[in-house]
Sequence to fold (226 residues):
Amino acid sequence: GENVEQHPSTLSVQEGDSAVIKCTYSDSASNYFPWYKQELGKRPQLIIDIRSNVGEKKDQRIAVTLNKTAKHFSLHITETQPEDSAVYFCAALTGGGADGLTFGKGTHLIIQP
Amino acid sequence: KAGVTQTPRYLIKTRGQQVTLSCSPISGHRSVSWYQQTPGQGLQFLFEYFSETQRNKGNFPGRFSGRQFSNSRSEMNVSTLELGDSALYLCASSSRQGAYGYTFGSGTRLTVV
Fold:
């Protein structure tokens, strides 16, 4: 089955700086890569996703890049704000979705004032 | 529109008992998926229901089962509870089969004592 590795497990950045979270996946048949944000005690929320036929997608301060050859994808957050503090999860979906989403272990992003 | 509703929010059960959790998807969504979230294993896929049929199943024992009703509401049942079943159980709904564009509910926190 699919395996998703996520790094780093904790990331501390100064407010206003950029943050980058990286994930690698193992199954070349994976074709959908969403990112979720989970604040403490709350539900995971989809913040951005990308399909395998696209290399990059941007939504305001958030962007995701995908390198199919290297089998890795990254989340980029620019001009970080205190409300960006949360745990971020990457995930991958293999074609057909038989195994559901395979999630990374999460990155705890801390925005320092 | 109303989000994904899970009930109950918290549950305490004794080892050996069984439990039923409920999930009402976003109106019009026909796909409901269930995930288990624990600190050690992270988010793991349990199963997906679409149009009252189980479409996909994760790597969990047969003690974990579910069903979906004609109004798309779904229930998950865990029999013969074990201490290791203590977790946050999340359901996610989508307008199409598969894990695309999930909206998660707030989850049911199950504690087995």
Remarks:
- Residues 16 and 80 of chain B are 4 Å apart (CA to CA).
- Chain B has a mean pLDDT of 95.
- Chain B touches chain A at residues 4, 33, 35, 42-48, 55-56, 58-59, 90, 97-107 (CB under 8 Å).
- Chain B has no helices and eleven strands.
